[in-house]
Specification:
This protein has about 475 residues and is of the alpha/beta class. It has 17 helices and 19 strands. The strands form five sheets. A five-stranded parallel beta sheet has the order 3-2-1-4-5, with helices on both faces. Helix 12 packs across helix 13 and helix 15 packs antiparallel against helix 16.
């Protein structure tokens, strides 16, 4: 181990920062967060540091560095652009047992400043011993995606009930078991939505070993590319006890869940439903009543032709708590990766999403209402009805030469984009043997595909940016 990790209590700790530029300001800002007493030493300072001086948050010695200017300090940062001065500061600090950091000069450091994930009082520090600060920052970004902002409040709340838990549970082993249950309960996912009385009830139930109500998270998986899922979706995947997922959710996305979760595929395919919708609804209810944290993972956005609303209606009837995590819907994702903007000042002022599948709303869409100038039409689940779409739009007045595109497996390594005109739509689907999932895009904006087509799957690295680092221990 190159360096010994340690957290310092910096409250009222006398510190000096030598330098008055941007780098010095960043160091000062970090030290201020830790409530250090700071003296900046420099003949000149920038506007940001000057503002701190005027607000009496720090002291300023308007002079060049001298040995007596840092005498008595407990920690010093050398942030000048003069290597000789930095070396002098380091040597003085070493001789007088003062912790010293010299910016971008690891050989002149007694300590280095780590990259920090701040969820105070939870603080995570990542260090490369000064060898690769950029790598440390990249690792910090990965950890940031996994830790909810509510972690700070959860930690503070846990601290506030420690006395209560200690009085109720007399042994260390009993208290450890309680905290393990507490930090795997719904407090981790619903803390900011819970009233104080709900938090108290949860704690009391855990103390009495009462069964806790589970919950369901309706999570959108996006259009296919694992890097398009949201940070909150990733967090829910890695907290869930059970992942209930659809057929169109890719294996790469499912693999982002914690390794010890239970996985239930309820996917639907045309003319082949593994589970009926009512069965899926009941699965979610049953799992939640068992106290499970359930991630209901749906392709695209769960509220856009995803039947998410139907599933939530059942949860409401059964008084099951839930959350909804939206996602990039197929029309936005597939059109973007195909280089087809859905709106454009020259071609389209509005866009309509419509499903090709029958529903309670009627067997046929209102074709006439879909035909407007300066308009883009996106048809979900319409591949098998491409010929019918072609005939009805032309019949109701859309130009036969209107540009069309079919985007197959959009945003993934298997994406294909086939373009043509409306009178060829049915033929295009058959001629190119296009399979599901596919999105139909109809409108003048399709003309832009040839010039804006930026995504070439065969040249993309077939590797996700997210790694299931929480589960791999």
């Amino acid at each position: 181990m190159e360096q010994f990790p340690i957290f310092l209590n910096m409250a009222n700790f006398p510190c000096a920062v030598v330098g008055g530029g941007e780098v010095a300001y960043r160091k000062i800002s970090a030290l201020l967060k830790a409530k250090a007493l700071i003296c900046v030493i420099s003949p000149e300072i920038n506007a940001d540091i000057n503002a701190l001086v005027e607000n009496k948050q720090i002291e300023w010695l308007q002079q060049n560095w001298q040995a007596d200017s840092i005498a008595g300090k407990r920690l010093v940062v050398a942030a000048t652009d003069n290597n000789q001065v930095n070396k002098q500061i380091f040597e003085y600090c070493e001789a007088h047992n003062i912790l010293v950091n010299t910016v971008d000069q690891p050989d002149l450091c007694r300590y280095t400043t780590p990259s920090i994930v701040d969820r105070s009082p939870i603080v995570i520090a990542i260090s490369s011993a000064g060898m690769s600060p950029v790598l440390a920052r990249r690792i910090r970004a990965m950890i940031e995606t996994a830790l909810p902002q509510s972690l700070s409040g959860i930690a503070q709340y846990a601290g506030s009930i420690r006395g209560k838990i200690k009085n109720k549970l007399p042994t260390i082993d009993l208290r450890r078991l309680f905290w393990e249950k507490f930090f795997s309960s719904s407090i981790m996912s619903r803390f900011e939505q819970m009233a104080d009385s709900e938090k108290t009830d949860l704690v009391d139930n855990l103390l009495d070993d009462t069964h806790e109500q589970g919950e369901v998270w309706l999570v959108g998986a996006g259009p296919g590319d694992p890097e398009l899922i949201t940070i909150k979706a990733l967090q829910k995947l890695q907290l869930a006890d059970v992942v209930v997922y659809d057929r169109l959710v890719s294996e790469d996305i499912v693999n982002l869940a914690r390794k010890d979760a239970e996985f239930i595929c309820v996917g639907k395919q045309k003319s082949l439903h593994m589970k009926q919708q009512q069965e899926i609804n009941q699965i979610l209810v049953d799992l939640a009543k068992q106290g499970k944290k359930v991630c209901r993972l749906k392709g695209g956005d769960p509220f856009i032709f995803g039947r998410g609303g139907e599933e939530l209606e059942t949860l409401v009837e059964q008084q099951i708590p839930f959350q909804v995590i939206p996602a990039v819907t197929a029309a936005a994702g597939c059109s973007s990766y195909a280089g087809i903007p859905l709106t454009h000042r020259d071609y389209a002022r509005k866009v309509t999403f419509v499903t090709g599948q029958n529903s309670k709303a009627g067997d046929e869409p209102d074709w006439q209402s879909l035909i407007h100038p300066y308009h883009t039409l996106c048809i979900y689940m319409g591949l098998s009805k491409a010929q019918q779409v072609q005939e009805n739009l032309i019949k109701h007045g859309m130009a036969a030469d209107m540009p069309v595109a079919i985007v197959e497996n959009g945003t993934t390594q298997h994406q294909r984009v086939v373009t043509g005109i409306l009178s060829e739509l049915g033929q295009l689907q058959q001629q190119h043997n296009i399979g599901s999932p596919a999105l139909l895009i109809i409108g003048q904006v399709v003309k832009l595909h040839s010039s804006l087509d930026w995504f070439t799957p065969d040249r993309q690295e077939n590797a996700g940016a997210f790694k299931n680092y929480l589960a791999e221990k």
